[in-house]
Amino acid sequence: MQNNQEIIDATVAYVKTSLEGAEGGHDWWHIYRVWQLSRQIAAHETADMLVVELGALLHDIADSKFHNGDESIGPARARAFMESQGLSEAVIVHVENIIRYISFKGGHNDNAFRSPELSVVQDADRLDAIGAIGVARAFNYGGFKNRAIYDPAIKPNMNMTREEYKNGASPTINHFYEKLLLLKDRMNTPTGKAMAAERHRFMEAFLEQFYKETMMDRIFAD
Ligand code: ADP
Ligand code: NI
């Protein structure tokens, strides 16, 4: 039986291999940031550190966005890997659920899985979508999708359905209003919320400067 550190080391090696060639916003360094942020948040919360670390490391090994919307591949690959490490069924099921529900967009749903460990990893994943790194990832993703940086004629739509959001082609600057500026109020843990505040202020400053340089009025009157 391996100790926890050996299991984490093996998981890091497995995830690095799985993500070779991944798009820049979802590469190993995204996983590394979410992993380290998860450890920092978990240090202030009551959570099982092994489950938190495994959940963070394995949460994006097969993002459904890049697998024709198939949401079962990620949990299945994670399970196969965890079984190979001799992890208990309880840990395996918990980590599978973290992967399944981390980006669950079902809103308030009593059947949705929740746990303190999911709350920690979800906060870490959301933190990595905001602040300076959030700005970088948004424009990287928009470039990957060949979207406009901005277009004053296209206003943000904050009430899109899930389908519209997935298939949409709104300019990247709109993504701040459609998602990124909303994340600070969706943090689960007090630690995550405090970390989000600074990143949120940075994005607001970025947008102010952006409007100045583009000679564009605020795209969204608030
Ligand atoms: P998750 O990490 O929960 O899978 P996403 O895959 O939706 O979240 O997003 C990954 C990164 O790509 C995030 O930084 C997010 O802001 C960015 N992104 C997602 N959709 C868009 C979009 N329509 N425009 C710009 N950036 C996007
Ligand atoms: Ni992620």
UniProtKB/TrEMBL annotation:
It holds the Pfam family HD. It comes from the Bacteria. It comes from Chitinophaga eiseniae. SMART domains: HDc. Residues 27-130 form the HD domain. This is HD domain-containing protein. InterPro entries: HD/PDEase_dom, HD_domain.
